[in-house]
Design goal:
Elements (H helix, E strand, L loop, with lengths): L5 E4 L3 H11 L3 E4 L3 H8 L7 E4 L9 E4 L2 E5 L4 H6 L1 H6 L1 H8 L4 H6 L2 H7 L6 H7 L3 E6 L2 E6 H4 E3 L2 E2 L6 E8 L5 E8 L10 E9 L5 E9 L6 E2 L1 H8 L4 E2 L1 H8 L2 H4 L10 H21 L3 E2 L1
Parallel strand pairs: 1-3, 2-3, 15-16
Antiparallel strand pairs: 4-5, 5-10, 6-7, 6-10, 8-9, 11-12, 12-13, 13-14
């Protein structure tokens, strides 16, 4: 039996923030509803009020501002995947958005919901991390920004306070010397929760050497993780395309992740999967910039 809940609708941002402050921990925010509906059916909603923010226009839209891209919390995965701005300035996020659920989920589900749910398997989360994205949190007291990597604290948990809402994201545009990619492994690819996923970002300097590397992975720890030791090995690579060299650097990821056994995969399988996903992703993004040795 589905739990009965109160239902509040916010018509604008001020109203949404006021309701968030008033309802506090009693509320469950709903926008696309793709996660909330499933949790309701499974009896996993502990809150007793649904706060519907789907009609808050201020939380929609993708815009460029100087060297930054701003994405509203209510932007859907379809909108991310199809946006010329995201495809040009943050292709890793577009690639991640294309893998979320099926067509209906991508049409309804939002990036704000994906982030706020704080699932370690969320597909857009590693992409936000490698983009050095900031999560924008709003309340009646004002707004604050939190680096994406610091936003999630565990499965279903984040630093978002009970009186706050995720209102959007912003991140630097990728430049001409930047390359990035995303891959996901699941039993039915785009129709399933990730068994493991990985996002990479490389900035290439003089001679094509990797000067900056950011690698993030999901479904391999309680939260999305940065693979700092693996990043260091990639920075040491010579700018010569070699599958063996890329695989050698990616092998460090095996030691940096701490997955668990669950119904979708064993911990050992996930460790091996991350090495394979990272090897494929890194090789693919470098193939357009490095020549075979």
């Amino acid at each position: 039996m589905i739990k009965e809940l109160e239902y509040e609708v916010a018509h604008n941002l001020d109203e949404a923030l006021a309701l968030a402050a008033t309802l506090g921990e009693r509320k469950r925010v709903v926008a696309g509803g793709t996660d909330v509906v499933v949790r309701l059916k499974e009896g996993l909603i502990r809150e007793d009020v649904l706060l519907d923010i789907s009609g808050v226009e201020a939380l929609r839209g993708i815009r460029e501002e100087d060297d930054w891209v701003h994405v509203g919390a209510l932007v859907t995965h379809d909108e991310l995947a199809l946006s010329p701005v995201i495809q040009q300035s943050a292709p890793v996020l577009a690639a991640a958005a294309r893998t979320v659920g099926g067509p209906q989920i991508r049409h309804r589900g939002t990036i704000g919901g994906n982030a706020a749910n704080a699932s370690p398997a969320g597909d857009t989360l590693p992409a936000l991390v490698v983009l050095d994205a900031l999560v924008i949190l709003g309340s009646v007291s004002g707004q604050r920004e939190v680096p994406a990597l610091d936003f999630w604290t565990g499965p279903g948990r984040s630093v978002c306070r009970p009186d706050e809402l995720v209102t959007g994201f912003r991140f630097p545009k990728m430049g001409v010397d930047d390359v990035a990619g995303f891959r996901k492994l699941g039993s039915r690819r785009a129709m399933t929760i990730a068994t493991a996923n990985v996002a990479v970002f490389f900035r290439l300097g003089k001679g094509g050497r990797i000067t900056h590397a950011r690698i993030a992975s999901g479904s391999v720890a309680p939260t999305v993780v940065r693979l700092s030791k693996t990043e260091e090995l990639f920075r040491q690579l010579l700018p010569v395309l070699s599958l063996a060299a890329v695989r050698g650097a990616a092998q460090m990821a095996w030691k940096e992740v701490a997955p668990i056994d669950d119904l979708r995969a064993t911990a050992l399988y996930r460790k091996e999967a991350i090495v394979g996903l990272l090897t494929e992703t890194a090789y693919e993004v470098l193939r357009g910039r490095w020549h075979e040795g």
